[in-house]
Amino acid sequence: MASYCMTIARLQLALGTGAKRFHVSAVFSAKAKVAMSRFEPGSSIGYEKMHENINVVRRRLSRPLTLSEKIVYGHLDDPVGQEIDRGRTYLRLHPDRVAMQDATAQMAMLQFISSGLPKVAVPSTIHCDHLIEAQMGGTQDLQRAKELNEEVYNFLATAAAKYGVGFWKPGSGIIHQIILENYAYPGVMLIGTDSHTPNGGGLGGICIGVGGADAVDVMAGIPWELKCPKVIGVRLTGTLAGWTSPKDVILKVAGILTVKGGTGAIVEYHGPGVDSISCTGMATICNMGAEIGATTSVFPYNHRMKTYLEKTGRGEIVSVADEFKEDLVPDKGCEYDQVIEINLSELKPHINGPFTPDLAHPVSEIGAIAKKSGWPLEVKVGLIGSCTNSSYEDMGRAASLAKQALDKGMKCKAQFTVTPGSEQIRATIERDGYAKILSDVGGVVLANACGPCIGQWDRRDVKKGEKNTIVTSFNRNFTARNDANPATHAFVTSPEIVTALALAGTLSFNPETDYLTAPSGEKFKLQPPSGDELPSRDFDPGQDTYQHPPAESGSIKVDVNPSSNRLELLVPFDKWNGKDLENMRVLIKVKGKCTTDHISAAGPWLKFRGHLDNISNNLLIGAINIENDAINKVKNQLTGEYGGVPDVARFYKANGVNWVVVGDENYGEGSSREHAALEPRHLGGRAIIVKNFARIHETNLKKQGLLPLTFADPSDYDKIRPDDKISIIGLKSFAPGKPLTAVIKHCDGSEESISLNHTFNETQIEWFKAGSALNRMKELQ
Question: Which enzyme class (predicted)?
């Protein structure tokens, strides 16, 4: 205990006053207190306790542990008694922190308010990054967002102050960059209400994307459940060089594993090649691991992380992490469930898409593939930045290419946008001249926010339905995601390749071999990008954008206007009535890919994320109905008329008719948004029956009292017709590992039964019986 207290004292000293970053302005001393709380007894596991837990588990299992296992098992609620079996058992864990972006924080905080608890039990933060629409440029767009979203920002700021949550104001930056700069550290376990929370794995933490109800559990101090992850090892050899970037590692891995190959697993990078990747480069790789369905991704503690911690004012963490270094790297001889080998010296630049992030192509081949496939070759817009690729290094390497073009008198042929990851990045690249170079070559610097990456883009250069190509350094490229145009062919790649293609204006340009033509007629070849990993001077923190929770908050009021169309207090869902669910209608039988974007679209719908009834008007409006191959057109089986999916769902609910959704593979992939689970529950849904689920969505459905069920025989998907009635039988004896039965009643009077599997454990079955996890929490208070 003495050494633990000494560790805390050293970290309090470092994070309170000693680190350079925290004396720049008053805001940083406030941030320091939040960062410091990570290490206070009672609010964090701490390295000493984690070390004890790891030793207990290692003795129990009698085998070497992977890094992922060390951090996860190091946060166990009961390391002595917890059953541990990768891929099977559920773990009860105590994460160190919670982070929420503003779109999901609304529902998370509404749920926390409903819990009746006075304060959060662990350090938590809210980050305003999702509600800023890209339209004119950073300054104008930020001011417009503050005016349009004043009610929501005020709610989040006051709720944060009331319940002890830190609040990062609009303009501060993207949640994942802020976490990397301030809160992530080797060995941390952090959960965030955004699917790209794994970004923090670049700093050696286990950072996992979850729904808001999971965040409420952790903020309430309740052990958080996670199915014991399998571990996929990616062994890196060789060295990154030339045009190849960290982004190419995950683009390659996505091509190998596909969008569901990482489901239920943590991807753990290791091997000698790791040391050739910067800390922010490692974060890029972990960030986009969400696109392969991975629980999270992580890198081992190394000198790159030390340098980043020191440069961001957290040098004292390094000295403590060094003491526990053996807990922050994998044991020699540890075993992975699967191993992928990648030689970085042989890895070529990649570009993935369109319409899915796992369709991988070498950049050298994309022109020919696009021509053969009928994809538009002209690049209309190149977009760099986002939470995946907006580091100082990313911006510097892109600027090095832009500078070469400017030196030849050339500008981008395509439109070009730049999204800084944080206020700190914006201020630093402005100070160091990168922002000017990128602007001079034709770039528009957008606000420090998510922007086009999540569909917050008021795009006007093409009409909806017009085929066109965009290239981005984002992480996700589902149909219509960026600009609401289903005909936009979006490709994801590195910022360097985006910049090169924006300069050339065509997908057929290979910067490794091809030449550009300057206005003078001179042909020239771009030299490989270069850029500093971190600024030679300290980071410029920029403007003060942080609100520390006050010590006393009893007088703070959190008001929700009953007539608001943006915010709405939650009404508890009804409890299970103790009977089987009989004669339910099929609301929609979904054909093919159905992501959370299809289930609950983002873009203009983001403004309703705090109002469950209003946002439910987007339920499944992007899903394809197998009956007619149409979007948002399903038959109302009570009237015989066709209508929008939300409208038919509301009609069924109003007439006391329960309904189910039938889906295909990897249902619910993509974002962590729990609205994709809240909306079907709110509109009368009872079960979602599919071939298989994406991890976060399956958990979110359970949390809201729905039944996520899978076909024991995937071919049974074909047995269900859109006009069937379905009964779920066996709920009175609902138990872990025991399948349920679906009785399908066809319109011709015939019936057939099929077996449905589930992954509920005892605790989750109690959620179902209570009507939701939140209801169950209240029952136990």
Answer: lyase
CA 423 vs. chain centroid, Å, equals: 20
What pLDDT sits at residue 604?
A: 87
- φ/ψ bin of 612: left (φ > 0), alpha (ψ from -120 to 50), beta (otherwise): alpha
Residue among 37, 44, 94, 129 flagged as catalytic: 129
Q: How far apart are CA 440 and CA 213, in angstroms?
A: 45
671 a catalytic residue: yes
Phi-psi region of 386 (alpha: psi -120 to 50; beta: other; left: phi over 0): left
> Contact 347/252 with Cβ under 8 angstroms?
yes
* Catalytic, out of 102, 141, 194, 217: 194
- φ, ψ at 90 (rounded to 5°): -100, 130
Q: Is 713 known to be catalytic?
A: no
Q: Look at residue 40 and tell me whether its pLDDT is greater than 60.
A: no
Burial label for 524, CB within 10 Å (0-12, 13-18, 19+), is middle
Verify whether residue 130 is a known catalytic residue.
Answer: yes
Judged against a pLDDT cut of 60, whether residue 5 lies above it is answered with no
**CA-based angle 688:764:85, to the nearest 5?**
105
Separation of alpha carbons 341 and 348, rounded Å: 15
Whether the CB-CB separation of 78 and 92 falls below 8 Å is answered with yes
Residue keyed to tokens 């609401």: 484
Residues in the chain: 781
Closest CA to 21 of 508, 664, 546: 546
Q: What is the pLDDT of residue 31?
A: 37
Q: Closest by alpha carbon to 415, among 380, 458, 455?
A: 380
Query: Can you tell me whether residue 189 is helix, strand or coil?
Result: strand
Q: Where are the alpha helices (DSSP H) in 200-353?
A: 212-219, 246-257, 279-287, 303-311, 315-323
Strands 581-589 and 659-662: parallel
On whether the CB atoms of residues 318 and 422 are closer than 8 A, the answer is no
Q: Is 350 helix (H, G, I), strand (E, B) or coil?
A: strand
pLDDT tier at 673 (50, 70, 90 boundaries)?
A: confident
Which of 44, 195, 671, 672 is catalytic? The answer is: 671
Q: What is the pLDDT of residue 559?
A: 84
| Residue 602 confidence (pLDDT) | 87
Tell me the C-alpha distance between 633 and 223, whole Å. 42
Write the CA distances from 723 to 583, 637, 659, 685, 750, integer angstroms: 11, 7, 11, 16, 13
129 is catalytic: yes
For 176, the 3-state DSSP assignment is helix
Q: Is the peptide bond prior to 511 cis by the omega test (within 30 degrees of 0)?
A: no
**Residue reference for tokens 């992380």:** 305
Q: Is residue 402 pLDDT above 90, yes or no?
A: yes
Q: How far apart are CA 767 and CA 744, in angstroms?
A: 26
Catalytic residue among 350, 361, 476, 686: 476
Contact (Cβ atoms closer than 8 angstroms) between residue 706 and residue 764: no
